[in-house]
Amino acid sequence: MTDIVLAASxxxxxxxxxxxxxxxxxxxxxxxxxxxGGLGIVALVLIVIRLINPPGSxxxxxxxxxxxxxxxxxxIAWGGxxxxxxxxxxxxxxxxH
Length: 97
Fold this sequence. Notes:
- Helices cover 68% and strands 0% of the residues.
- By secondary structure, it is mostly helical.
- It is built from three helices and no strands.
- The protein is elongated.
């Protein structure tokens, strides 16, 4: 279950990035960002649970991959949240004069 959520969040985040980079759709980036943000939060919670209570024996060493996964899931959640925000003005109103 955890693997599926992690893979889905990564695929969604990459697909939003590709759509934004190539300008393939106007509406997908906002909708995709909300899905990526939600999956990123779920992935973040699942990784924290696995770090606190690892499966198997309680003396399992937490490798660097778990911590990198935690950082990546936090980045996906934050990027999804940022993608849902309204775009601000490109220049300040005082510069338009």
